[in-house]
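Data card: per-record layout.
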Amino acid sequence: MALLGLLLVCPGLLRAEAGRPAHAGSAACISCHAEEGRRWQASHHALAMQVASPQRVLGDFAGVDFVDGQRRVRFFRRGDGFFIRTEGPDGRPGDFRVSHTIGVYPLQQYLLPLPGGRLQAFDVAWDARPREEGGQRWFALAAHAGARPGEALHWTGRELEWNFMCAACHTTGRVQAADPGSGRPAGHQAEIGVGCEACHGAGADHARAPRAGAGLPVLTARLRRQVFAFDGTAPIARLRGEAGAGQRTTEVCAPCHARRQQLVAAPRPEAPFLDGYTPALVEPGLYFSDGQIDDEVFEYGSFAQSAMHRAGVSCTHCHDPHDGRPRAPGNALCAQCHLPARYDVAAHHGHRAGSPGAACTACHMPTRTYMGVHVRHDHRFSVPRPAQSGRLGTPDACRACHTDKGPAWAAAALARRGRGEGREPPLAGALAAQWRGGWLGPLSLGQALELSYPGIQRASLLAGLTAGRPLPSPDVLSQAAADRDGLLRLGLARALVALPPPQALAIGTPLLDDPLRAVRIEAARSLAGRSSDPLPQPLRARLEAGMAEALQAEGVAADRPEAHVNRARLLQARGDGAAAGQALTMALRLDPAFVPALINLADLHRAAGRDGEAEGLLLRAVAAAPRSAEACHALGLLRVRQGRRAEALPLLQEAASLAPDEGRYALVVAVALMEAGRLDTAAGVLENSRQRRPDDPSLLRLLAQVESRRGRSAEAAALSEALARLTRQP
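The structure for this 730-residue chain is written out next.
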């Protein structure tokens, strides 16, 4: 009865969409698969979302007060219900009943219903760890500290809305939807929690006729044919079984273990990952330049960079798919494929047996903490490279334990033990150089794409291409377009915006017919509006089909203002300015202070000659977000176009100050300062930006001009020589 109570939480669950296979529900699966069901019922997957009850709520609701800055929150019971007294969407205190729990360990959050069918995840969570580890307490999620009602990060705001932020990965058979006119959530699911069919696919047909093989689960047969075994000649086990099954298995886990955009309302686990989602690539702010995790990106993006992924290892080789636990404790888990006599010895790891440093994960899976208490391992399974970390400014795994030492000490310690860093992967330096605004240093992009490095890293290099920089040859790009790795083709689709229009069309046209939806959509985004000449009808039709898919993908998140801004950009590229304006108006209906919508709508008005309306929108943007570099920059540019340069300069300077890593802001303000005759100040702005983007040729070129005008010929010559060295390709 407990399981049935978990499943039947609202009318219409377990229903089938027209033309879609029906879900049977986990209870039906367990009736035949009892052992798998027993393990699953105690898993974090099964408990990912639950109806609030005394058995499921872990937090202390015994009239407990929690003070967070100026805010006082009270957790209490009323009859059978769990309540939170806090400020509501109008800023006034109210009592909000907990409807569901989200997660179980190491923290648990609580969902509170609000009008309009919304469920909001409260921003004070329960630390479920044992008391001796610092747990059994309420704590505020740091990202939401100080947020006020009406702001996106307040618990009533969009960044804590269950429909978009939680539902797809905490339920089974979710159909993600929102009313396009109001933005109200309109989705539904077959089951709360991550049930059997979240991974195996809808199984009503299989439940009705299991012996006939109808609706067979997604993974069962393939996993039985994919094993690793030692052959007696190598210390690492090799694949024995179906090639590619490991990647396919990983793709079933990826939708909930990746930073990604969902492209269809109801993705199916049996479909390729890139047919239902667009994953984040290795980008600044999400990863470090050597591929280590930075922001909360979960596991897929790091695992896709690993040698294990390329060798065919899947998530389920290390984790039991039903209870989610590691298949063996400690180093025994790695010993499944790595001979302990070779690897679990001091000669390899250099630490006393049984000590923390002797754990495989200590060196090869460094951790970062998210949501205050959730420690997660990096799944690149990388080799520690402290010297490289010192050069690139990335975290060094050795310092996780040796906190008082630096990368140079760690590199020397490895060298003394005969454990040098080995050949340094050049792609890490290439990504770092690209992020600093420059070229790839000793490695050309063509060479990088031809090397046998992870597809996600090569895709990231491609996606980072910018116009006006050296590009790989058309042959290299055409090879990437035909590569079997969908991630590489995705990166190329994004790179099309950096190519001259004729070349972009020639190379990108085949990507409009790619078998993966994510690639088709990115290609359509990049090619839309690029050509000033009329396109042949067949190509125009293919591009229009890709644009339609892109617009449909944005409709999945119609409750989010950014989705409507993205729709507006697509519609504008299509030449439909009126529809673009409607989309931006809808974005502002969802969030009247959404800066990207205000700026884009202002740009539409400016293009139509309505400068007064554009100015009003940009003033609103600056007032709503005075620390938005984008808003200050846009208003500053408008002031320049209006001839009000004295008012423009402080705004442009403020933008450069707020976003010092954004080189274009520094370039614009430096040009404005030059025109005002303030050469010394212009030089200072450019030098400050160069501290962060030392390889940006645009900054070097402009600074050389400034120094020449200042009469500093030696400095200008040195900068010109540095520019020549930087742009000299191998």
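Known properties of this structure: Residues 1-16 have pLDDT under 50 and may be disordered. The chain is about 45% helix and 10% strand.

See the next section for split statistics.
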